[in-house]
Amino acid sequence: MKNIAVIGAGTMGNGIAHTFAQSGFNVQLIDISDASLEKGMNTISRNLDRMVAKEKISETDKSDTLGKITTFTNTEEGIKHADLIVEAATENLDLKLKIFKQLDDVCNENAILATNTSSISITQIAAVTSRPEKVIGMHFMNPVPIMKLVEIIRGYSTSDEVTNTIMELSKTLGKVPTEVNDYPGFVANRILMPMINESIETLYNGVAGVEEIDTVMKLGMAHPMGPLQLADFIGLDVCLSILNVMYDGFKNPKYAPCPLLVNMVMAGKLGVKSGEGFYDYAESRKAEKVATQFLK
Ligand SMILES: NC(=O)c1ccc[n+]([C@@H]2O[C@H](COP(=O)([O-])OP(=O)(O)OC[C@H]3O[C@@H](n4cnc5c(N)ncnc54)[C@H](O)[C@@H]3O)[C@@H](O)[C@H]2O)c1
């Protein structure tokens, strides 16, 4: 594999592009918006600067990495020579189904189609293509250049050969791939989201305050970040949508989102990205502080 197309230059897409380029792959980074591409490339450049400052890479490594990435707003142009496509566009079922139909029509017949979705069924996405055996989940964690895990999700029809190829490829990125099957929430979110939901329920029931709940989990369980702060960081709307996918998928009330979470999302309190969630991020400096703490 040489050419990797990444669809979406947002939070995850730029991190995925950075990671592949730093490992020597040619990356075609695609987004519908020029502004997102520019912002994504600036983020990659800033993250590489931080690595240079920490003497993890040289200035030459930085310019080599940036030189491996080409940007496109025309998807067809960007994907036509790709051996692997990693889709990291907005989390929306209809959008992903549309993208995968287009990928299937345009990409060369041997190309593997991967998605970074946090919660949408790989099997459902694969079913709109004529190559379901070549569709797989590659669930990178945020921030991608730093986090070691890639949750590799096999859809119902994903072949052994494709799974093995993607497992080996992830290792060449310096990641630790872990194979799981395609059920709602996969493994990461199936375990993380109920913990976050329970911490919101604990707050809702008046057992303890925001900082107390986070302190118990940080200092008592050695979590780098409390669950409420983590929920703010992920986005409360994202947490709600993943819980709903699990609630609908398993028909099990244990995944029912806490009414406080539902109310906060309806009120537009989405966490860091909206300036307020369980914590107040009104001053942008404060929000940055949270993100930097997490990166350490
Ligand atoms: N943010 C996280 O922590 C996280 C973690 C793991 C997985 N994910 C998953 O990664 C994916 C991307 O999430 P994100 O947080 O990076 O979102 P984001 O909103 O930061 O970025 C999404 C990007 O996709 C672009 N886009 C939308 N439609 C497109 C199209 N048709 N073609 C090309 N680009 C298009 C948007 O312009 C935007 O730049 C989602 O599926 C999400 O569930 C997110």
From TrEMBL:
InterPro entries: 3-OHacyl-CoA_DH, 3-OHacyl-CoA_DH_CS, 3-OHacyl-CoA_DH_NAD-bd, 3HC_DH_C, 6-PGluconate_DH-like_C_sf, 6PGD_dom2, NAD(P)-bd_dom_sf. GO terms for molecular function: 3-hydroxybutyryl-CoA dehydrogenase activity. Pfam families: 3HCDH, 3HCDH_N. Residues 3-182 form the 3-hydroxyacyl-CoA dehydrogenase NAD binding domain. Its EC number is 1.1.1.157. It is an enzyme of class 1 (oxidoreductase). The keyword Oxidoreductase applies. Keywords: Oxidoreductase. The keyword Methyltransferase does not apply. Residues 185-281 form the 3-hydroxyacyl-CoA dehydrogenase C-terminal domain. PANTHER family: 3-HYDROXYACYL-COA DEHYDROGENASE FAMILY PROTEIN, 3-HYDROXYBUTYRYL-COA DEHYDROGENASE. Belongs to the 3-hydroxyacyl-CoA dehydrogenase family. This is 3-hydroxybutyryl-CoA dehydrogenase.
